[in-house]
Amino acid sequence: MRCVVADDRLSRVFSALADPTRRDIVARLAAGDATVGELAEPYDVTVQAVSKHIRVLEDAGLVSRSRDAQRRPCHLEAEVFDLMTKWIERYRREAEDRFRRLDALLEHMDEQPVTGTPEKEAAS
Prior knowledge:
By secondary structure, the protein is mostly helical. Helices cover 60% and strands 5% of the residues. It has helices spanning 9-16, 20-31, 36-40, 47-59, 79-111, 120-123; strands at 63-65, 74-76. A two-stranded antiparallel sheet has the order 1-2. Strand 1 (63-65) and strand 2 (74-76) form a beta hairpin. It starts with 8 loop residues before the first helix and ends with a helix. 14% of the residues are buried.
């Protein structure tokens, strides 16, 4: 079976969030809209470099830009997080189910009496 990484929206989102600067930008936009210049302030990089990060976030659907007179604020698109949450929740539930089955098996094993234990040490 060949594994192919799909160029789907979820893959683009996770790829965009793989960079710590972009994750920080997303965290800051969660507090409110900001311009590229405002977002670039705390970083020791050019506004153009931050603009490239924002473009990656835009391509992934995490951020949009609007026009407010002379300002072009960036806005976090929160519905994308619903897509991520659904994907993560699916695997969290599967892992939880596996742990429940393991707990039940271990509990069942604890209830079983230990029989037929070798007494090699006693014979030595």
